[in-house]
Amino acid sequence: MTSTSSLAGKRVLVTGGNSGIGAAIVRRLAAQGAKVAVNYRSDKAAADALVGELNSAGCTAAAFQADLTAAGRAHELVDAVVAELGGLDLLVSNAGVEHFGALETITEADFDRIFLTNVAGQLFVTQAAVAAMTDGGRIVLSASVSVRLSVYHHTLYAASKAAIPAMVRNLAPELADRNIAINAISPGATATRMAMSYGANYTHPALADVPFDALLRSMSALGRFAQPDDIAAVVAFLLSPEAAHITGTTIEADGGWS
């Protein structure tokens, strides 16, 4: 790991940090000197393996299990992180769930699962983190390129992610009293296991003969998928001192889709 010191000693919680984009963010922040709390919902083995990798490389990391669909769990998680790391300076809310489905197939259970994770989970972990965070802290939430695109059968997911830019815009002046900056990142198609697994089942009646990966590449001005490290680099920038004057905004790291 190439180490820099731009986040040296900063204590950061990354939700959904055990795989995909979250794991790339964890590795990036640890390499920049941060002490990282890796939150996971169910895959303990992946979280423990990542933490072991980082600690073996001389970084400081610890794993914390929590399902963030309830406000109480978010506060319990933050309390545990503060007790372990001695405080909290930064939050990256990365945990999220995907959904593809036609309007007539959407159930109340689908709605609850998507909105409790993608909206309530992000709101309540932000609430808990702000209560424990040092003044001058930084927060990055997770939106999606779907907020600005029309994607077939993606209505429920896009609606949940559309709440995030509104959330950061409205929280920015509220948190400014303590010099806490809050922003969001809006990734496009990223080469993660979750994205590829949903993509394998993606269908559109007018595009049935177009391979999923070719379809997505054609929608990107750069002609490629993002790699998790591409997204992690933008998150690290938003947490850095160089981004101190950026708040209330959503950065579209989508390869030019939107």
Automatic annotation (TrEMBL):
Pfam families: adh_short_C2. Transmembrane segments: none annotated. The keyword Oxidoreductase applies. Residues 10-188 form the Ketoreductase domain. Keywords: Oxidoreductase. The keyword Oxidoreductase applies. InterPro entries: KR_dom (IPR057326), NAD(P)-bd_dom_sf (IPR036291), Sc_DH/Rdtase_CS (IPR020904), SDR_fam (IPR002347). PROSITE patterns: ADH_SHORT. SUPFAM superfamilies: NAD(P)-binding Rossmann-fold domains. PANTHER family: OXIDOREDUCTASE, SHORT-CHAIN DEHYDROGENASE/REDUCTASE FAMILY (AFU_ORTHOLOGUE AFUA_5G02870), SHORT-CHAIN DEHYDROGENASE_REDUCTASE FAMILY PROTEIN. This is NAD(P)-dependent dehydrogenase (Short-subunit alcohol dehydrogenase family). It comes from Kribbella aluminosa.
